[in-house]
Amino acid sequence: MRYKAMKRCLILILLMCSQYSWTQEQSPRITISFQDSDLKSVINQIEEKTNYQFYFINSWLEGFDNISGNYNDVTIENLLNDIFGATIINFYIMGEDKIILTQNAIIYNTLPDKFFGEERIDEKSDNIAERKKAIIPIFSSTNKSPKKKKIETIKIGKALRGSVKEKFRFYGYVKNGQTGKPLPDAVIVVNGKDVGAETDANGFFDTELKVGPNIVEINALAMEDFKKRIVIYNDGRFDVTLNEKIEQLEEVILQSETNNNVDEAITKTEIDVEESKNIPLALGERDVLKVATTLPGITTAGEGATGYNVRGGKSDQNLILLDDAVVYNPQHFFGVFSALNPFALGDANIYKNSIPAEYGGRLSSVFDLKTKDASTEKFTGEASIGPVTGNILIETPVVKDKAGIMIGGRGAYANWILQNLDEESLKNSEASFYDVIAKYNHEITENSKIEAMAYLSRDDFSITSDSLFVYNNRALSLRWNYKFNDKNSAKLSLANSQYKFDIEFDGQTNDDFDLGYSIDETELKFQFKYLYSDKIKFDYGVSSKLYVVNPGSIEPKGEESIIEPLEIDEERGLESAAFLTAEIDLTKRFTLDAGIRYSVYNALGEGTQNVYQEGTPRSEGTIQETLFFDKNEVIETYGGPEYRISGRYLLTDNFSVKASYNKTFQFIHTLSNNTTVSPIDAWKLSDLNIEPQSSQQYALGLYKNFDEGAYELSLEGFYKESENIVDFKTGAEILLNENIETETLQGDGKAYGVEFLLKKQKGKLYGWLGYTYSRSFIRLDGEFEEERVNDGDFFPSNFDKPHDFSLVANYRFTKRFSLATNFVYQTGRPVTFPVGSFSFNGSDFTVFSDRNKFRIPDFFRLDLGFNIEGNHKKNKLAHSFWTISVYNVLGRNNPFSVFFVTEDGEVKALQSSIFSVPIPSITYNFKF
Fold first, then answer.
1. Where is the signal peptide, in residue numbers (predicted)?
2. What gap in Å lies between CA 472 and CA 501, rounded to an integer?
3. What's the CA dihedral at 312, 316, 317, 319 to 10 degrees?
4. How far apart are CA 675 and CA 797, in angstroms?
5. d(Cα 628, Cα 834) in Å, to the nearest integer?
6. pLDDT (tens digit, 9 = 90+) per residue, 72-91?
7. Is domain 2-103 given the CATH code 3.30.460.10 in the classification?
C-alpha cells in the first residue's frame, strides 16, 4: 500500500512539473554586467532585472567572490550555466518566475529508469546501446534507522545533466591533526564494495567511487578511525584530518568538568578513581573512600576505624551504593583497606549537602559508586602487587562492540603487619581477606542496555588465640536502561545486598560457641527522566525495599559446651517510596532543583513486640504485655514527605551562591556501644518501640573558579537537626538481647560547621587544601533518670572533632615522575575519663566524668610517596606504574582509643595505636 501511494504522489508531482516545464525558446533574454561582485549580489541583480525569484540557502553562496562579466541579450539558462559553472551549484527553472538552486544534485522532472520495475528506453538516441543507458538521478536518503548510529554525509562533485558515467574520481590528502604532517599508508576502504586505496608517502590518495552514496572508512596506525557517507556526483577532492589515538598514563586529578561545581544546583563531590594512585596511603593500596576523607565534611572516628562521619552524622547514616546495591561494610582489615576493588570502579559521586530525591533511607550522605563498563573492543586488564595485597582485573569482549565481561579479585597476606603492631596481644593474631567482582554489560540496541554486577567480600581475623571472626558482604544488581526518545528515558533496577558476621569461640573452658548475624535486603526501583524543555527536566520514579534481619543466634560448639542455644526472632521491614524532582532554569542565572520523596515504612511480622507500662522506665520488669504478629502482618507504620530543595544563582559566569534544604528519614539503625564502628555491629529495624531517625539540614555556600578553571574555591556552611538518634545506656548488653529496646535511648542531635576547599587543578603542582570547622552534639533526655545522660544536656558525640585540616599535593617533575604528599590534622575525639574513686563495703569503685567531657590527643600524620610511570608507548605489552611511599613519615603515635585499667587499686590510662611507626611500602601496578 505504501509503494502504491508513493507511486501516485510521484506521478502527481510529474504532472505538476510538466505544467511549469521551461524551454529555451520561451526563456526571456537579459543584458547584465557586474565587476568583482559576490555571487549573492549577482543573483540580486538578476532578480531586479527579471521576474525570477531565487530560492537557496545563504551558506551555499559563501566563498564565491570577485565574479565579473558582461552579458548582452543572453538567455537566463546560458547566464546561469556560466555563473555557476565553476561551483557545485545547480539550478532548476520552474515556470516563469522561480529558480531553485541546489548543492551538488540536479532536480529532475522525470523518474529514474526501472523506478517502477520497467526498463525505460531513450527513444531520441540513434545508438541502441546508448538508448538503453538511462540517465539515473542520484537519490541520497537522509532517513536513518533509529537502531543505527548516525553517520555524517559528505557530498562530492557537481551533478551534470546528461552524464552517464557510473564512476567518478575521488582524491584527496590525509594529515595528522596534531602535527600537521602527512599520513602515509593510510587505508581507504569502501564498505561492501571491492574498492580501496592507500595514501602515498606525501599523504595523497586517488581512487574511483561509484556514483551515489558510499560508506568510506580511513584507517591509520595509532589514529582515530574515520567513517563517513560520501555521496559522489562528480569528480572531487576531499581532504581528511585524523587525530591521534594514544592511551596516555598521565596523572589524573580530582576534578569535575569545568565550572560544574559552579553551575550545578545540586553540589556533588566527584572523585576520579585514578586519583588515589597518586595519594600516599597505608601500604600503598589505592582507595577511593580514603581519598574522600581528605575532603571537607567527611572524616572517620579515628585511624583504622570503619565507617565514615559526614557533617556530624553517625557512620550508619551514610548510604553506600555499588551499582545501586547497598554495601554495609565497605572496609577490610579494621578499616585500613577499602573492600571495593579500585580497578573496577568507574564513577564515584558523593552527596552530602543536597541529596537528590531518588535516594532515601539515610540521613547524612550518599556514596554513589558505579563500576566501569567492561571493554567490548579488546582483551585488557590491570593488576597490582603490594606488600600486603595482590589485585587483578581483566576485561574481555563477549559480543564485539556490543557486550563485554569484567572479572576482578583481590587477596591479602597481612599477617606480618599484625606481628609488628605495638599491642603485645595482637602480635600472634591472624588476618586475611579477599573480594571478587564481576560485571556483564550488553548494548542490545542503541537505546537499550543491560548491566549485571555481582560482588562478594570476606574477612577472617583472629585477634586472640581462642576466637575467629568472619564477616561478609554480598551485592548483586541487574539494571536495564532504555531510551524511548530524545526526551524520555528509563531505568529499571533490581538489587540484593547481604551483610553477615560469625564468631567462633574455642577457649580453654567448656563455653565454646558459634554466634551468627545477618541482614539481607532486596530493592526494586523504576526511574524515569523526562526532558520537558531545555529549561525544565524531570526525574521521577518509585522504589520498594524489603529488609530481612536475623538479629543473632548462638549455638554450642562441641558436645561438651554448656552454652544454651538461642535464636532471636527474625525482623522484617518494607520501605517504599515515590519521588519527583524538577530542575528548572527560572532565569539564565537562577536554577532551582526541587524534589519531594514520600517514604512509607512498614515493620512486618512474624514476631513479637513488647508493650511497656506507661509512666515507668522500660525494663523486663515493666513489660505489660507481649503482642504476637503473623508473617508479613504490619506491626507499625512510619513515614512522610521528604523535601529536597536546592538553588543556584550565578553572580558571574564563574561565581555562584547555592542554598539547600533537605529533610530525610532513616528506618534502620546500628546497635553499638563502642566509640567506633566494628565489624560485629548489628543493624536494627524500626519497630513498635524504636522509632525512625529523621533529620533536617540547611546549607549555604559560595563557589568560585579562577584562571579558567585552574583553581576552585568553595566556602559552605551547614546546620543540621536530628531526632530519634539511637544511643545506649552505660554498660548496655547489645548482642543477643531479646528486649534490646530496654537498653536503647533515643535523643536529639545537632551539628553545624563551615567547610573550606581550595583546589589547584593544572600545572606541575596540583592538589587541594581542605579545612572544616564543625561540631556534633547529642542530647539524651528521658522522663526517668536512667534515661538521661549528662543531666539531659547536649554533649559532644563520639565523633565530634572541631578542627579537620587536610593538604594533598602532587608535584610532577615530568610526565613519568611525581612526588606526592598527604598531611592530616584533626582534633582528638571525645572520651570519658575517670575522675575519682571511692571504697564501699571493702570494694573499690571508680567515678567517671560526664560522658565525652574530655578528649584524646590531637591526630596528625604526614605521608610521602614517589610515583614512577613507565614510558607511554602505545604498543607496549603492558604499561607500568610504581609507587614508593612512606605512611606516617614522622612516626606519630596517634592514639586510636584511650582506655583505663585498675592495677593494685590504681587507675591507669592506656592508649592503643594502629600505626605508631613509619610504614614504608612499594607497589607495582601495570595495565595490559
1. 1-23
2. 6
3. 130
4. 9
5. 44
6. 888 888 888 888 887 888 88
7. no
